[in-house]
Amino acid sequence: MKKTLFLLLTLFVYSYSSAQLKVQHLVTENQVDPINIDALVPRFSWQLDAPGRQNVMQTAYEIKATTYAFLKKGKHDVWSSGKVVSDQSVYVPYKGEALLSGRKYYWQVRVWDNTGKPSEWSAPASWQMGMLTPADWKAQWISPGYVEDSVMRPSPLFRKEFSLNKKIASATLFITSHGLYEAQLNGHRVGDAYLTPGWTSYNKRLQYQAYDVTALLKEGKNAAGAVLGNGWYRGHIGFNPLPNLYGKDISLLFQLEVTYADGSKATVVSDGSWKSSTGPVRFAEIYYGATIDDNMQQKDWSVINFDDKNWDGVKVQDFRKDILVATNSEPVRKHETYKPVKIFTTPKGEKVIDFGQNLVGWVQLKVTGNKGDKITLSHAEVIDKAGNFYTENLRTARSQDVYILKGGGEETFEPQFTWQGFRYIKVEGYPGDLKPENFTAVALYSDMAPTGSFSCSNALINQLQHNIQWGQKGNFLDVPTDCPQRDERLGWTGDAQVFSRTASYNMNVHNFFSKWLKDVAADQYKNGSIPFVIPNVIGRTDATDGPGASTGWADVSTIIPWNMYIAYGDKRILEDQYASMKAWVDYMKTQSKSDLWNTGFHFGDWLFYSVNDDTDGSSAITNKYLIAQCFYAYSTQLLINTANVLGKSEDAATYTSLLAKIKEAYLKEYVTPNGLISSDTQTAYVLALQFDMLPENLRQQAADRLVSNIRRYGNHLTTGFLGTPYLCRVLSNFGHADVAYQLLLQDTYPSWLYPVKMGATTIWERWDGIKPDGSFEDASMNSYNHYAYGAIGDWMYRVIAGIDTKAEAPGYKEIVIKPTIGGNLQNVSADYETNYGKISSHWKVAKDTVLMDVAIPANTTATVYIPAQSGDMVTENGKPLAGEPLTETTTSGIRYLVTKVGSGLYHFSAITTKH
Q1: Long-range pairs, 60-64, Cβ under 8 A, ≥24
Q2: Does the keyword Hydrolase apply (predicted)?
Q3: CA quadruple 881, 887, 888, 894: dihedral, nearest 10
């Protein structure tokens, strides 16, 4: 009897624990239920949920794909993988029949865990294919039929009425434009995205979007409308801003695909039957702002029975459709809102509102006034030392929105087809008193999912983390811009590459960077050189060569693909970018003599520490060609890594041989036999150590020289854009984590915390954008929202909190938890959402004990490093640590107990001192 009860109990516990296993968070090409996939072989990912269980691994999976009719029957008619013995749960490729344009599919998955039991089938997920060939586009490009005002270029309106004569089952709108668009159906806005179709290399890649608009249509008569803005396509953009960089036209491509309940279909397209006019948007430019005149409203212009007899026709255009690509990155959307924290009058008598946060977006305004009243909102990041509104650093960007009232009641305004970077606004012409309830600042950025958090016992570091994240939000506006406020806002390659790994912690930037990297490859010059900015609005990308090839900037073509592969484990991004990576390395090879690259223009260690009068040699000047040789080696190493991942063994061998020559040339040219680097700067030593340029016997003394240099500057950094990202990493790698902490916690110029103490809410372009006396750096280049120096975040997350992954198991399939205690921090909490689920690394110091709370997601394993002298000084959940853990002593003298764990929650307690 007892044996029977025991068996029954065992079976109950076993079956209960198996029943706890669920498959959730199904995504297709990193998107939840996407409706615009143009990958011919989509890939599926999912997560395992096993609450309360440890060491859960997937051992097999089964996927079935189907159409809706068969899904309702519980069957599949498209593809079944059968049971596949594999622990792969990320980027599993579809292997069924060829997929059809516009067709919607559904998929489900079940898995087997390491107890041998299957999960239930997941809830269905779906994906819909986009337009797979140019022939799928039945729509025609249309432009306004009226003669445009060539100066103000007010935004055109397009409209068309049509009938749908049956019950509607589903409807998808495929749409794009030359310029920016916002679409309407029956008076309702289509979607919640802004600045569509986004910015790409328009002459080679133009994105289109897809929207499920079923709910916006009705049986019978319907009306479609669209309003367009100049945007990046023909608006003023670039240095000495010029219009019409991609074309002079402004045009719409609109295709509505409707499926009726009986299975039949209808298509509504843009063609010569549409009409055009203008409306309230009288002017809209990215740098200059928008002018909106409510008197020019055409009420109900996008609903049926609107009287459009005075509207003009349209021009049908023969523009390309073979460059159209589906949008797989996240659209720009509205996010946080801020109300005024202060309304004041400056010494000059200006009416100013402070929203308390430097952000990117615009201000929504409510107002009641008279017909013809004109309100002007000007935008600024800072107030000058006298307390006045300051816009000199915007250069030629007016960054003003103008609203003209029609009167007769409360009116609400917000701009279209522009945005501003600001904390403050100056209000002119507002009738009546400025009241907080009438002004709302709206943040605008690409809708990337937040993935990482970091907090600690130091309030200044927490504000730094806040600033890093807000620098990313403000500058990840469809492309990674260098700044969001002045007449620039370009996709500077150097800024993006130094920040990319930090960016991947804060937010899911996989699709964001995948999209942008395709433009890096598209705009790459024919000789392999990479332009300074992407999309390239500085040089002609149909040329053999042009402005570009600056070391550390052009290396974006190798560094970001590799960083994204490590962060997300997606091999396809390496496949897509390999030709571009190889072309860039080959370019450097052709520019080198005896394997030494010492030619061409380079920005060098941009904005490094310098003094006006450098008679004593205080400025930290690093030879630009020395830097170039280091990045030449690094890019070559990343190309070798990529070739190995992709199985390109011949390339791996070829470039391995080249790399040895590059390093030999570096040593011969820049390093004395005693290990002194010719540029005795922090950046020189950092790059030499980070990129493995020195023989082993010279490395530690180079690290020690680096520390001596830091001491020489009073425990301050002197690095610029290229040295800063790796500075603390090198110090901690070579036994000087204490010095890295000193630099992080330094709060006088130059340092990360100096701007924080000066009131910054984002990362500054310069270490001293505001000087201690309140004066400003040179207005010609002084942004207060410029994320490059926020790259310190990578060290905070991967070293202080200790969350990392292994290159041989990227995407956090194999996790490393290795916190570095120091800096007088009493506690640190970091969480990170991976493709497998959440990782947590929380630690707390209590006298001579370190408490660690660790969470590892299912279907992964982790190596956990616990600061402790020996195994008998560590417990896990109050019990002695199981097995025979290893010990490791770092170069800093930190002793770790090393243990391998599976998924689950762990609470470690470690005594850090011997008794």
Answers
A1: 60/84, 60/85, 60/86, 60/111, 60/112, 61/86, 61/88, 61/89, 61/92, 61/109, 61/110, 61/111, 61/112, 62/109, 62/110, 62/111, 63/92, 63/107, 63/108, 63/109, 64/107, 64/108, 64/109
A2: yes
A3: 60
Position 94 pLDDT exceeds 80:
yes
Residue 14 pLDDT > 80, yes or no? no
**Rounded mean pLDDT of the chain?**
94
- DSSP states along 714-732: TS-----TTTHHHHHHHHH
What is the C-alpha R_g of the chain?
A: 29
Domains of the chain, each with CATH number or no CATH? 2-128 (2.60.40.10), 134-327 (2.60.120.260), 333-446 (2.60.120.260), 452-798 (1.50.10.10), 801-911 (2.60.420.10)
Across-strand partners of 184?
189, 225
488 is catalytic: yes
Phi, psi of 359 (to 5 degrees): -140, 175
Distance of CA 646 to the CA centre of its chain: 25
Model pTM score:
0.95
Residue type, 467: N
| Residue 330 is among the residues annotated as catalytic for this protein | no
**Within a 10 A sphere around the Cβ of 776, how many other Cβ atoms?**
18
Catalytic residue among 182, 411, 488, 833: 488
Q: Are strands 861-867 and 814-817 parallel, antiparallel or unpaired?
A: parallel
796 DSSP assignment:
I
* CA-closest candidate to residue 606, choices 419, 788, 871, 377: 788
Beta bridge partners of 119: none
pLDDT digits (tens, 9 = 90+) for 471-494: 999 999 999 999 999 999 999 999
Q: Is 4 exposed, middle or buried (0-12, 13-18, 19+ CB in 10 A)?
A: exposed
Q: What are phi and psi of 503, to 5 degrees?
A: -60, -40
